[in-house]
Automatic annotation (TrEMBL):
NCBIfam families named among the record's database cross-references: RNA_bind_RnpM
Domain called YlxR: residue spans: 7-80
InterPro entries associated with the record: YlxR, YlxR-like_sf, YlxR_dom
Signal sequence annotation: none
This protein's name: DUF448 domain-containing protein
């Protein structure tokens, strides 16, 4: 039996299977983006699909906390847009 990787939601700190979370990545060049595949190179921050966690992640400054650096508002908006689109597809 293959071991399934576990990751922790940056909001509620609950553990989930990696494939059940949404991943935001900061790559080596410093670009931050939503990773729908879960396989992009770089440091990942994971958010569970619960509405409460997504809402908190999108409204509060969790990108800066997760990656421990300043994040431009345009980048935050781009990630919000992609996450919102993804959540609409899941419903």
């Amino acid at each position: 039996m293959k071991k399934i990787p576990q990751r922790t939601c940056v909001i509620c700190h609950s553990k989930f299977d990696k494939r059940d979370l949404l991943r935001i990545v900061s790559d080596k060049s410093g670009e931050i983006f939503f990773d729908p595949t879960g396989k992009a190179n770089g440091r990942g921050a994971y958010v569970c699909k619960s509405e409460a966690c997504l809402e908190q992640f999108l409204t509060k400054n969790y990108l800066e906390r997760a990656f421990k650096r300043k994040v431009d508002k345009e980048v935050v908006e781009a990630v919000r847009q992609k996450l919102s689109e993804r959540v609409k597809m899941m419903k």
